[in-house]
Amino acid sequence: MGNKYRLTSLVESRKLLWLIAVLFAVAFSIQYFELPYGSAFLSLFSSGKGEVALVGNLGNSSSSSSVGKSLANGSVISSNSLNSTDPITSQGISNVTELSDGKDAKEKHSDDSFDVVGDSDPEDESPSKDFTEVNHNLTVMEVVGGTSLAPEKALESHETIPASNATSRNNVSLDSNEGQNIEQALAGDETVDTRLSKPSDTIPPSDSPPPSRSPEGVGINSGSPVKNAANASQKSENPGFLKTDLVSSVNDSPKKTIPKVKDRPKDPEDTVFSLSAMNDMLLQSITSYHAMKPRWTSGTDQELLLARSLIEKAPKVKDDTDLYAPLYRNFSMFRRSYELMEQTLKIYIYKEGGKPIFHQPVLKGIYASEGWFMKQLKASRHFVTKTPGKAHLFYLPFSTRMLEEMLYVPNSHSHRNLVQYLNNYLNLITSRYSFWNRTGGADHFFVACHDWAPSETKRIMAPCIRALCNSDIKEGFQFGKDVSLAETYVRSAQKPLRQLGGQPPSKRRILAFFAGNMHGYLRPILLQYWENRDPDMKIFGQMPMVKGQMNYIQHMKSSKYCICAKGYEVNSPRVVEAIFYECVPVIISDNFVPPFFETLNWESFAVFVLEKDIPNLKNILLSIPEKKYLQMQKRVKLVQQHFLWHSRPVKYDIFHMILHSIWYTRVFQISSR
Question: Which residues of 250-260 are buried (b: 16+ CB within 10 A; e: fewer)?
Fold first, then answer.
């Protein structure tokens, strides 16, 4: 009887164990597929406070290779599997071995492979575009001073935050040690333990909906077409998703049906803004857009007001030895503004933030603009001040390229943790300093070239001057506040001007050239109409690697017109590439605001073709008289100086032009009213 009872108990115990195992497996599967950060296993223990290491001070330990390999594969590693002395972090990356010249695992081209023959598309560095924009609840006012006031009340508050009050106040549920670790990780302190808990555990998303209107003093007049254009993307039925592509890749299936122009994705709010409409919006922004009035006055405000007055009253100048007047909207105003920038502008750079996301620029690839600007500004003795009270602008020195590289979980389709990381950084800045609170962030700026930058920053950094490569009116780009950043494809960090220039007009035998992979919906349409259809139109997908035939760069150097067709987003490095190789750019990208738009007269040296006019592309180009083409090609060569990176900045180069765009925007934001 006893043996039978024990046998029954044993069977029941085994059944119970099997049941527990099954439940555990089901729970693990649910966690794995539902959690955005891939840290499923850890979330089952310690009330979600298990530590996750994305990267640490790897050094030469045996764990270094395994950590790096896991990062490359998008996996996560329990902190317990690492040496206990290795500082680790889940959102901040500090104590990391520095990357030389931004070389990383995703870089496609080395300095030794400058001439790209086979893979001709410079945009192949772009990661997956199908993530979900999930962080709708992080509003602008959540990070202004870390206050929890309602948006309309927060800007009315004159409360200042002393530098000593260095605590996070943005609804962060942390114990004192964890709060200190976040601050230390973002501050880049290499002597402290930077272990953090997961972003989803430490900072719960707000339950409150985003404000239905911009706070007073931050936005622009409600009747302004600028605001309507900027908010167009938010009115769509499903604002959390990026537009999907009709054709993911022609290379995957050469027989795949290519959509016609009429099959282009439609949006109920889909308005195409012509270049003349953009010109009007830019001019209107000078009177309609006003940044928040500073909460207390500063001598720097008076200097900006004086600069605005002097720019508006600039004496007429026809030309000079360095600049060609027809290239500019208002040559006299530009020259006076540039002079005043050189004489006046001072910038304070925040020291907080750990490498490589902060303070470690990437100098190669299609995102190089943000890296080169960071590198050259940090090295500037002329524009940088160590005294915040003397600063007209405050620079947030982060890289959107490295933010994606280090924190994005492949195939997660989410960038919540990237946005949360930036939110934590702003909490640190606003709790340590009062500068953001004085202007609501209007005198702060960042320079970002990654495609995701507009969506990642449009809420938590909305008041800032955003210098964006992805300058799309339909994705929230605002005239009078944002700046269009030139996307430059730097193949050699040591020799950024390598192979500059091209054939003279008389030797440019090709009418038009394009080559590239099928990013987005537009390029398949371009190929449908023009690939292998006309000997004058050299329109390719991925260029075949054939020995003895012209490669990508040689085609650009030998073409009259270089087609700059949008990919997933409106921006393309081909715009600057065309200028680099002295080829007249033909921009096919609706609602794209070209770089330095407030300064340059783009119609004097570039051609703009609406997406719907692709079938008529050759006729449009042939309708341009030869005399007009020669004039435009000459102007491309003259404007080229504004788009070149030099090892050390020179007057009027791209570094100074980016700086001038930011300076000019801030000068005309501020008002004496």
Answer: beeeeeeebbe
Residue 664 tokens, joined: 């000019």
Query: Which comes out higher in pLDDT, residue 577 or 20?
Result: 577
What's the rounded Cα separation, in Å, for the pair 466 and 424?
18
22-81 pLDDT per residue, tens: 776 665 554 444 433 333 333 323 333 333 233 333 233 333 333 333 333 333 333 333
Give the model confidence (pLDDT) of 328-384 as tens digits: 999 999 999 999 999 999 999 999 999 999 999 899 999 999 999 999 999 999 999
| Residue 444 host element (H or E) | strand 444-448
Listed in sequence order, the DSSP H helices in 231-330 are 275-288, 299-312
Determine contact, residues 236/270, Cβ cutoff 8 Å.
no
69-88 b/e (C-beta count within 10 Å ≥ 16 → b): ebbeeeebbebeebeeebbb
CA distances from 448 to 34, 372, 402, 465, 484 (A): 30, 11, 11, 11, 10
| 459 closest CA partner among 231, 136, 229 | 136
Q: If you average pLDDT over residues 231-251, what whole number do you get?
A: 32
pLDDT at 19 over 80: no
- Residue 322 CA to residue 342 CA, distance in Å, equals 16
CA distance 667 to 671: 9
Would you state the structure tokens that stand for residue 517, as one six-digit string? 């992979």
Calpha distance 92→61 (Å, rounded):
21
Instruction: Give the containing element (helix H, strand E) for 349.
Output: strand 347-349
* Contact of 598 with 658, CB cutoff 8 Å: no
pLDDT in tens, 533-571: 999 999 999 887 777 788 999 999 999 999 999 999 999
Give exposure, 588-604, as e/b (b: 16+ Cβ within 10 Å).
bbbbbbbbbbbbbbbeb
Domain(s) of CATH 3.40.50.2000: residues in the chain: 501-643
pTM over the 0.90 mark? no
Which one-letter DSSP state was computed for residue 314?
A: P
Which listed CATH number (3.40.50.150, 1.10.8.60, 3.40.50.2000, 3.40.50.300) goes with 501-643?
3.40.50.2000
